[in-house]
Amino acid sequence: MLIEWEFRHERAKVWAAVWDADQWPLGVSGFSPVAGTAFVGGPFPTMGTDYVGNLECEVTELVPVEMIAIDVVAPRISGPASTWQFRSEMFDRDDGGTRAVTAVHGADPASRDERIALGIFTSIASWIYGHASYDLDHPAPRLPGRLSRGAKQRGRCPKPADHDDGENDCEETT
């Protein structure tokens, strides 16, 4: 399986947008784009297959802002788990943009269940690339100043018109 995406933005910005796990549609716990990081993804939605539970993952190779390899283990109800490697690379384009390529290695094309799972992964990767591209093309406006953690948690953010000094007036909590 191979997924390719073209971005109009420089590689460092694309890398940061794509590898922000808080933006992914699949729940992930413990991910960081750092070699050796083990994390959990899921639950893995694969109706019609014998896959069950969460994905056990590990970042096995990393060249920051260029390449990341992630080993993924998908447990099954019966039989051995499936193991794949997702390898994503980013390349500079002549126009200042970025080309991203994700390949999945280790899949068994003869396995109906693996074909279904890879179809889901293709959809997820395309969603991540598409949303990263949209977010880079349409950056969200930022409020002036810094917000305290407590203000963010309570949703008590000052209106921009209330500020002329660049600082926030949110109530500080600990």
TrEMBL record:
Gene3D superfamilies: 3.30.530.20. Residues 140-174 are annotated as: Disordered. InterPro entries: START-like_dom_sf (IPR023393). Residues 164-174 have a biased composition (Acidic residues). It comes from the Bacteria. SUPFAM superfamilies: Bet v1-like. This is Polyketide cyclase / dehydrase and lipid transport. The lineage of its organism: Bacteria, Bacillati, Actinomycetota, Actinomycetes, Mycobacteriales.
